[in-house]
Amino acid sequence: MGRSYVTAVSAVCVALFLCVFAFRANAEWNHIDDVPVGRYTGIATLVGDPEARGAGVAVVFRVQGWRYEATFYGADAWRVRNRMQGESVLMSATRERWEGGVPRYKLVRHVAGRLVDVDLGGDWTQGSALTRATNRLRRLIAHGASVLPPAEASLLVGLVIGDDRGQPRAMRTAFRDAGLSHLTAVSGQNIVFVLAVFAPAITRMKPRARLVGTLAVLATFTLMTRAEPSVLRAAGMAAVSAVVFATGGKVAAGRALLASSALLVLADPFLAWSVGFWLSFTATGGLVVVGPRCDSWLRRSRCPGFVVAPLAASVAAQLATLPILIFVFGRIAVWGLVANLLAVPVAGAVMLAGLPLCLVAGLMGGPIATLLTSPLLLGVRWVWWVAEIVARLPS
Length: 395
Fold this sequence. Notes:
Blueprint: H1 2-33, E1 38-46, E2 51-53, E3 56-63, E4 66-72, H2 74-80, E5 88-97, H3 104-107, E6 111-125, H4 129-145, H5 150-161, H6 169-177, H7 188-202, H8 207-224, H9 229-246, H10 253-267, H11 275-289, H12 291-300, H13 305-329, H14 336-364, H15 366-391
Parallel strand pairs: 4-6
Antiparallel strand pairs: 1-3, 1-5, 2-3, 3-4, 5-6
């Protein structure tokens, strides 16, 4: 009787969730179809950071609550390339709908149209205090990493805050072919390391202040990493766990994953169209469901103890994400398990130490910055070499 009751309640909750999600998704679709078009003159605010696209620079602006993409070339590209999310400028442009409907990867970011014939004003405003703070942190991290060679610096910034815009195309290809692209996409591993950095201060607080501090760290890191779908999933799961823990309870990892993901897709239904969100959700689900079984099987097989945990985690995550990789990309990294075993432990150490060391290096500069980042250089090169070597293996 008890099990039947739980099953019935669960079925009702799932049905209710699907109904609410369908209503929210339909409302968002209808809303984005009504995007305003025509000439506009006024304030435009950057959403996300500019990205190189061929010979130009692509940016997304928020205009009167709507998001539009614009591509700049020549002198205008140089004017916007170093701008950051949250900064605003006076602009005159023509707003247009996407031809043939909104592309899915743009839909995930709520980019409803494009801007053409753009004329930018001269002065930029820096945004709110929180925007200025998070942008300053990103600049400090990038400045601290800049004492390394350009390619290694771009990879270090990618590992620490998920900013892979400066990585050479060959590096991105190698990481993709080796099955290591997830290392430069902020995920639960980064969240754990960031909380570990602030743990000495947070754990000394009273329970209520500890919760506020934890949520503040999660919110700041989420904004600093530009709230990508994977970091939203990870931060949401951590926030649910922190709230439950602060109330004196405990929540299983699987329930925290389901609860946080459900809340996120209700708040933003377009996350359900995000491949990054799918991969983050399924990889975490694999760690929760398949990981312990892999761990037990490896221990019974007398696998060396020091490789049991990383091997079980890699196998679980790759098995869980395999259907998506095949369905969406039509390919898998055959040697990905080997690459992850070799690269993930070192990449984790770089993530853990990289945030504070890059911040201090950015503040100090000079020989001190070089000294602080020299251990990170070794770790970054190891991860890069693993990706390059594994990507060249026959598949």
